[in-house]
């Protein structure tokens, strides 16, 4: 494997002065932008909000953006299914990095307004669903008005003559727009976290770190009681753990599925490479969406029997057999 | 098993004149209401739109509603994660029925307006994402305004002084509100279908039909490479096919999962009953969310080795051994 | 299960004065007789040597013997294949007990003869093969004459005008016949042990002791790469360990197999009963050859998920589901 | 893999005039010699009967014999356990060929004797066990005298003053010694076949033929309910079928096993090579005993997913991923 460090890679933006352009699921001020801003160098890059996951990915495929940041799990503002489906079809793309963003909502108002004055509140419908308990207890009389995103609500609030009194949004956008925060961390679920990924065209792979994740899209080769087992056996028989699995309809016809899977480890690890080869044999249309560092830095546990050394020793042994020893 | 036909069951609404009350993820006129209306008897029942999946389910738990209809897969207007998570915690609930609704969007306007006149269009953000190709081709200049739901956009359009010119919504609500439909089936994905479920308190189970589905929530007992295999082996070793699997974080801490699973067959089938007992042994906190008829009426395939007869024969054989024959 | 202690059982020979008759693979004085004599009560029973395993078992089937003792593993004097095959066909029989006998050979001569005087030595061909190293070192010039069994050699030696000078046999028979033992423990393998079983007609099962073994004959239902796995999965998915497995041709045609298997545990254990039922479904012609105490008293290890309590809890849970809770 | 055809191999005996020496489990005239004689070229080679399997193999290990022929399954005259155990320990050996020999017994007498004259009959105890039904029906009065082998009985009969009247032996030896055959095919089991193997020092492998067998000795890495499954999964997950499996105690201590396994296919097949590497990782002390043509010429069935092409395609795909495509 050629190392990403050997040359100028999209995930090492701009060392030679080129302009790095990031697309992301917009608008500005959402949790997705927060995810993007946590990536080193993103502060100095061009950042283009896209109206949908598909359009963000399209900007990457067409070369207008170096990479895109989109949600892939648990998103407040949707897009997860779109991301899973978009990565499973069309020209291949690669995940270079994952980013975890804590989801904390604030209640923001124009400077000077008090809690008791709030008669209307706006935010994305999903954010509203997640703050309903707090709202019922604290602003029970407030009417809800939908917004296209949490950020859109905040932006409208900061403009002349907003049509509502308060916005539920991310701390980032409230601060940036100079809004007053009347209450923090008002989501009903504490410690909620959303996972985002940075996506690019295929190219050099991020180097293995010992704490990596590999994302795959695997069409179910046949639909019978053991078919999923055959796929999962490829992982378990090499000691590879899964951290996410979702069946998704292919969209072709009912009963036709693919699996979106995250597995612990890097394709440069012998056991993961062997797993991928096993998967390719039973489902040759699988897609490798990338091997990249885990955001939580949890080290991959490796059993003695599935270490790179065990694979190397087995290769050497077999070679000797074939040579007559 | 006592049959549902023996007595007055919640999924046989109102035979003795009692008032049947259905909650559903509102507002009126969404695809969820369309799902509800397709259920026999729902036309004559009280139908209460709920602002969120959780509140719809809460109405069932508290007895204010006989049953609730909520999305469980592929929803245009969200709610799927909320449904999966709500069913996995709190007092137990049961799925009594599934409903498939084709997702077709129309462009609706107030009577008299032409396509060329549209400068602003409103709908739910997810519906907008699914109609962007059509919009780019046909109303490229139109500005987008978010709505809380597809139906909310249609409703506002039907009221005095709407703040936009057109709504993207379900055919049902456009017809009901007397709006003009300028274009039909404008979604970018043809043949999209969303799955909804009707949920009630535990009680009599729907009778097996030979084309049934069983839905389970199974906490991962331990997190190691073979743990998911151990769970799936319980199904495959009894010839039970899965039609959906999703890992979901428990919300407790990272790396702690449960699986939301749909399996072919009914708990009254011997092989499914045996599978559930096997699952209970390895993950005693699993939840049975119900056995109910498949909406697509596809018959469950049963191998010779996993038929009710094979189970009965094995029981008799073992009994004879224990009695010394 | 009715307990064996409730009534007069064949493996509790003779409490009411009836005559207990044991058949065994003869002749007298072999390791098989040693195995039989180690069984409580056998000293006082009628003991009939049989010329072959089949004839010993036939004596049980016809009622002429209460039980038979035959080798089932590692036998010096053969019979193991015959035992495995005989148990797999014909009217059903049951193993009630296993016996481990240490295999130690002695060199026996008529009183007065010295090592240097030995010119010819006789024993069973298998015993000769196991003592060849000792013979090469200690009686290198001695010529070998075959005998039908180790005991037969000893018996001939004790009679008038034997045709050889020394016999290699079990300590038991040398002592009984009053022969001189010139060398003890002359086998090339130290600590060799042979396993014998006591076989009876089907009847009351020995009671579970917590250290039991279950023996099965399982025809391979179909011959494909996963067929054996499907069988073994029935054990492993219930946490049942195997202590012996042998494939044996059925004798019908090439490529047609049955498996002779010993598994840890008793059919009265829930996990073993469930395993047997699973096996019956995939291979309905399997034979249960008995559950009986292990000769080595090693306790069966039981995981939390496969305890009788876990099975009972799963049964109760399922029952409650079917009753609508 | 270097082809056996490239050079002078032990299993292509003697092309350059060297003397080929075969050891075999003797004595002369047994079924083992019949197996040896069926090997091309063996008629012209030196053939040395060995008194035991161990000594035959020792002749190969020490270089005194080019190869040895010994029974490995279902032998009339024993040796099978000795062969399995001898191959599992000591300096490595290789199976180059298997031979199937039909087991048919004849009743041989000195010329002129009639059936009614037979008062004593001799043969190996196992052969006697296999002909007892015929003997009971046809020579019920005849007394049995054991012999070291079927051939030894025939040889003694052909010599001056034999101590018995008839021998039960192989047709080969009766014919060779000029004995009269009074009855043919007198074994109780029709169509019995014994399998023998030709064993040599490690060296060039027999070339794959499309109908091959691979023999392995695999120590059980750990003793728990799933350990054997982990081993067998290596075969089944690559579509490799087993045709024989036997657990054998290692001789070290009770509960410590190895498995003797025959699998369909050749180590030069990608799926078998991959299986062996997988086995090496979980049980690094396994022994490869050879890949060699099946005696029954039954072609190995290969699924699409486990063909050499599928393996090659997977290798190429993985290589492209690692190179950034």
UniProtKB/TrEMBL annotation, chains A, B, C, D:
Domain ACT: 216-293
Pfam families the record matches: PDT
Keywords carried by this UniProt record: Amino-acid biosynthesis, Aromatic amino acid biosynthesis, Lyase, Phenylalanine biosynthesis
Highest rank taxon of the organism: Bacteria
Coiled-coil regions, chain positions: none
SUPFAM superfamilies for the chain: ACT-like (SSF55021), Periplasmic binding protein-like II (SSF53850)
Single GO term (MF): prephenate dehydratase activity
Domain Prephenate dehydratase span(s) in chain numbering: 21-201
Catalytic reaction(s) noted: prephenate + H(+) = 3-phenylpyruvate + CO2 + H2O
EC number(s) stated in the UniProt entry for this protein: 4.2.1.51
Pathways per UniProt: Amino-acid biosynthesis; L-phenylalanine biosynthesis; phenylpyruvate from prephenate: step 1/1
Name recorded for this polypeptide: Prephenate dehydratase
Underlying gene: pheA
């Amino acid at each position: 494997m050629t190392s990403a460090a050997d040359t100028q890679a999209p995930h090492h933006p701009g060392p030679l002065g080129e302009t790095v352009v990031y697309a992301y699921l917009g608008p500005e001020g959402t949790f997705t932008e927060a995810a993007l801003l946590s990536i080193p160098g993103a502060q100095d890059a061009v950042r283009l909000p896209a109206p949908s996951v598909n359009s963000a990915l399209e900007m990457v495929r067409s070369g207008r953006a170096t990479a895109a940041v989109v949600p892939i799990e648990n998103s407040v503002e949707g897009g997860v299914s779109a991301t899973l489906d978009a990565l499973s079809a069309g020209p291949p793309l690669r995940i270079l990095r994952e980013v975890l963003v804590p989801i904390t909502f604030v209640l923001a108002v124009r400077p000077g307004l008090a809690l008791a004055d709030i008669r209307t509140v706006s935010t994305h419908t999903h954010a509203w669903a997640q703050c309903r308990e707090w709202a019922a207890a604290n602003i029970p009389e407030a009417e809800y008005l939908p917004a296209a995103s949490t950020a859109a609500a905040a932006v409208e609030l900061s403009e002349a003559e907003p049509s509502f009194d308060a916005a539920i949004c991310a701390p980032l956008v409230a601060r940036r727009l100079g809004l007053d925060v009347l209450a923090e961390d008002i989501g009903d679920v504490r410690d909620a976290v959303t996972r985002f990924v940075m996506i690019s065209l295929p190219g050099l792979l991020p180097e293995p770190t010992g704490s990596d994740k590999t994302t795959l899209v695997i069409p179910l080769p046949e639909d019978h009681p053991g078919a999923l087992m055959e796929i999962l056996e490829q992982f378990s028989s090499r000691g590879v753990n899964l951290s996410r699995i979702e069946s998704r309809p292919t969209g072709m016809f009912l009963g036709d599925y693919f699996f979106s899977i995250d597995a612990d480890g890097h394709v440069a690890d012998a056991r993961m490479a062997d797993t991928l080869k096993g998967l390719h044999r039973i489902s040759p249309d699988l897609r490798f969406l990338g091997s990249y560092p885990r955001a939580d830095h949890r080290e991959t546990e490796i059993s003695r029997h599935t270490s790179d050394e065990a694979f190397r020793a087995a290769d050497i042994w077999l070679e000797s057999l074939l040579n007559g020893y």
